[in-house]
């Protein structure tokens, strides 16, 4: 009798996913609701055939070596995979996978939520009411920004960027986008205009970031870019924190170089850049863009299917190895 393969899951995910895996393999889940340290990760992956990991787990050559040569597949429970050293895994014959497609609606809806909440000063006004400071209706209380018919700039026209554009059309927003590729069909559908980065910065009333984190997109928005934006502009980031130079953003917000920011992600999560949390014109939430029940289940289904496929000798649906 052959022994069952062993799968480690680095943090609690929907029980349906664990059950699906348990039908095939021995499965162990990190019992604590916290990210594993690097040493713990190396220790827990030792001898495993597969793992489900999170964006907080750095999977590089050292971790893969600690796991051992039997490790076949690491399935990230995320669409982003900047926590993976792709070359190190490929050299060791380890398949890496992600969960594309199933987070687009949740993430795009969350992007619009951040945009609306920042523009209409929802976090500030909520705190004001809770603190018992509201004295009654007044015409000039918490006057925010118009959203309808304003220009939405999209940096990075992947699945999520496109989804945001479609939702923004419901507010009659004019769409401009910067991307390496021009998409004539998308332009015909949404009326969007392809622009260069400088035009995107100059013309956007709301600028939303949907680029992956790569060496080329690290600090895609820094001090110079913030200075190039309108003083009335709002920056939205639900991609990856290091795409924005957060210290420069704090300075720009303090100096009134832009009007506000809605942030789901941060450079050094869970820490925030000094001064950021004290600013009234930012909305900050803890990396929850994809946090809906259907999305979490769907992410689990993809990760589990990828592991089942690889350990049964089949090609996985969403491999990210080069
Ligand atoms: C992702 O999937 O990359 C998100 O950031 C977390 O769900």
From TrEMBL:
Keywords: NAD, Oxidoreductase. GO terms for cellular component: cytosol. Transmembrane segments: none annotated. It comes from the Bacteria. This is D-glycerate dehydrogenase. One of its GO terms (molecular function) is glyoxylate reductase (NADPH) activity. Residues 112-289 form the D-isomer specific 2-hydroxyacid dehydrogenase NAD-binding domain. Residues 7-321 form the D-isomer specific 2-hydroxyacid dehydrogenase catalytic domain. The keyword NAD applies. Belongs to the D-isomer specific 2-hydroxyacid dehydrogenase family. The keyword Transmembrane helix does not apply.
């Amino acid at each position: 009798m052959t022994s069952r393969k062993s799968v480690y899951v680095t943090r609690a995910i929907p029980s349906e996913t664990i059950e699906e895996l348990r039908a095939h393999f021995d499965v162990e889940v990190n019992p604590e609701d916290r990210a594993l340290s690097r040493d713990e990760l190396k220790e827990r992956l030792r001898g495993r055939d597969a793992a489900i990991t999170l964006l907080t787990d750095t999977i590089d050559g050292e971790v893969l070596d600690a796991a051992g040569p039997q490790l076949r597949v690491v399935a990230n429970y995320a669409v982003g995979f900047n926590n993976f050293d792709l070359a190190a895994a490929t050299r060791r014959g380890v398949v890496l996978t992600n969960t594309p497609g199933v987070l687009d609606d949740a993430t795009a809806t969350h992007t619009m939520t951040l945009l609306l909440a920042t523009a209409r000063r929802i976090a500030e006004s909520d705190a004001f009411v809770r603190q018992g400071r509201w004295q009654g209706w007044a015409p000039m209380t918490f006057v925010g920004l118009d959203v309808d018919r304003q220009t939405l700039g999209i940096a990075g026209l992947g699945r999520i960027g496109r989804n945001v554009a479609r939702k923004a059309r419901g507010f009659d927003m004019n769409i401009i986008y910067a991307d390496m590729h021009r998409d004539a069909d998308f332009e015909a559908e949404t009326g969007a205009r392809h622009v260069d980065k400088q035009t995107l910065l100059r013309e956007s009333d709301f600028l939303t970031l949907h680029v992956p984190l790569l060496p080329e997109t690290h600090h895609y928005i820094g001090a110079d870019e913030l200075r190039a934006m309108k003083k009335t502009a709002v920056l939205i980031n639900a991609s990856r924190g290091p795409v924005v130079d957060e210290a420069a953003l704090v300075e720009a917000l303090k100096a009134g170089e832009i009007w506000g920011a809605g942030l789901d992600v941060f450079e050094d999560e869970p820490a925030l850049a000094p001064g950021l949390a004290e600013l009234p014109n930012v909305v900050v939430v803890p990396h929850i863009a994809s946090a809906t029940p259907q999305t979490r289940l769907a992410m689990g289904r993809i990760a589990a299917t990828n592991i089942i496929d690889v350990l049964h000798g089949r090609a996985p649906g969403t491999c990210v190895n080069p």
